[in-house]
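anyone seen this seq b4? input:
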Amino acid sequence: MLTDEHLNETKIDLGEEQGQPDQNAPADKGQITSVEDRDPRGINAHLKVNFEDVIAEPDSMHSFDKIWIWSDALFEVSKLWCYRIISLIFAVPVSLFSGIIFAILSCLHIWCVMPCIKNCLMNMPSIQAIWGTIVDVVISPCCESMGKCFSGINLHIARD
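predicted toks r here
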């Protein structure tokens, strides 16, 4: 069974020298995230799948021990390398596309949406005053008149 000890062999050496900052030190907002902790908020914790989570033999049925060990190793290695190959193909284009989309959305939000919202909020008191006048002069008298007209109607339902 592969453990973290085996996975540590494939880590990338970034060539840290004495003048460079420690990767484990807390990063400032402008720095690139740590190579070690790639999911600091745990948003993909549900994807931590081990061999035992997928393949399980009940106590009454067991395969050969060597088959179980090799199956576990093959599962872990194939999962790791398939992920690496797929991420090698898709990581850069998806990151580029996501960056462009978030840049567009941020620009629209900053330069279009928020000015419109602020403009509406600034004009809202005058619109509220005009709407309140319309309601008091036109709509309220109509509703009161219809209420008085229909208040005299009684409805009795009788079942046969």
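The two ends are 79 Å apart (CA to CA). Residues 65-150 form the longest helix (86 residues). kinda curious what u guys think
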